Task: structure prediction
Amino acid sequence: MADEVKLFGMWASPYSRRVELALKLKGIPYEYIEEDLSNKSSLLLKYNPVHQKIPVLVHNGKSIPESLVILEYIDETWRNNPVLLPRDPYKRSIARFWAKFIDEKILITTRKVSFTTGKEQDQAMEELSEQLKLLENELKGKPYFAGEAIGYLDIVVANFLVFWFRNLQEALGINMFTKERFPIIFEWIEKVVAIDVVEVCRIPKERHLVYIRTRLEAIKSASK
Amino acid sequence: MATSEVKVLGSWPSPYAMRPRIALNIKSVDYEYIDEKLWEGKSQLLLQSNPVHKKIPVLIHGDRKPICESLIIVQYINETWSAGPSILPSDPYERAVARFWAAYLDDKWFPAVKSVGIAKGDEEKKAAIAQVEEGLALMEGAFGDCSKGKGFFGGDEIGYLDIAFGSFLGWLRVTEKFNGMKLLDEGKTPALVRWADRFCSHGSVKDVMPDTDKLAEFGKMVIAKIRAAGAAAERH
Result:
C-alpha cells in the first residue's frame, strides 16, 4: 500500500516550514494543503480538534499535530538518512531542550521585541541577544547543531532564526541579529542555506515582510 | 550502579519533580534524591546545574552535564536504561499521541488548574473550572484510545502519559479540597477515576506522591504569598 502523507500548513509559519523541511530532507512525497487561518477548513478542525492549529501531518489517515511531535514522528517512521535526532540519549535530550527553549522562551522574547518601543524594546533586545548567545554556544566545535550533518535542532533554528526572525527584524527596522555579533551562527547559516531543499523551504521574503507589517499593525491597533 | 551515579534535584510539592523519580523507579535504577526548598531560595547546586532556567527537576547522571525539563528527563531515562520496561510505546504513532497529550497537559490543562486557585472573583473561577473539566473529558477519551482496555494509558504498565498526567493528581485533589467540589467525577470521567486510584497505589508512584493534606497546607502558604505580592503591587 502506498503511503499517503498530507501536511496542513501555512506559508508564513516557521512551525509549518520546519515540518516541510524535514519531509523534503528525508525525500518523503507529500500533499501540501495551505490553510487560511482566518477561515479554517473543516478538515483541519477534524484533524486537530484540540488546538485547531497548523501544522498537522496526516499519515494514512492518522493525524499528528504539534510541530516538534511531528518531527520526532517523521524521524521514527522514515528511518532513512538524514537521521534527524542524535542516536545518543544525552545528545537527544540536549537537542530537545534547545528546541523547547526556542519555542517557549525565545518566542516570548521576540514578541516583547515586536510590541515594545524605546527602553523596553532595548531591554527585550538585550534579553534576546543573551538567549541567542546561549544557542550559539551549542554550535561551538561542530559544523551543525546535530553534529556532522543537518538534523532536528538545525531544522528548528533555521526556520525560526534564518527564515522568520531575520525578516521580522527587517520589518521592525532593527538590526540586532548580525554576523558581527553572532559569527558562529552566521557561519552555520551559510552552510545550511547551501543545501538545496533548505532554499526551497524558505519563507518568500518580500511577501513575508508585507505579511509581518500588516499583522503587527493589526495587533497594535487592536490593543489600543 | 552506585546510588550516587544518578541524582535527581527536585522539590517535594512539585509535580514535575515526581516524573523523573517515577521513571527511575520503573527502571529499578537507584538514585539519590536531593530536595530543594525553593521557597527558601535556590541552592548553588541547582543554579550550577540549570543555569538557563534555574528550575527543578534536574537529572545528574555520572559526570555528564545535567539534564533539565521533566519530560525530556523521562525520555532520557527511557532511552538510557533501555533494558527495563519501556516507558514510551514502540509504535511511532502511539508515541506521537502520548507526546501530544503530555504537551497539552503541561501547556494548557495544568495552567487552568492553577488558575482555579488564584482566580479573582466567581466569573474567573467558573471559567477556569470549565477549562479543567473540558480537559478531563478529553483525557477520558484519550484514555479509551491509549489504554486499549488495559489499566493505564501505557497499557498493562505505567507509561509516559500516565507519568505526565498522574503527577498532577496531587494538585488536582488539593484544588477539589479548596473549592469543595469534585473535578475528577465518577459520573463524568469514570475511567479516569479508576485509573487515578491505580496510578497512585502503583509501586513506582506511591512513595513519591505527596500526601494531599500536606500539599494543601503548602498550597495555602503559596496562595497567601501570591495574594500578598499582588496586594503589595496594587498598593504602589
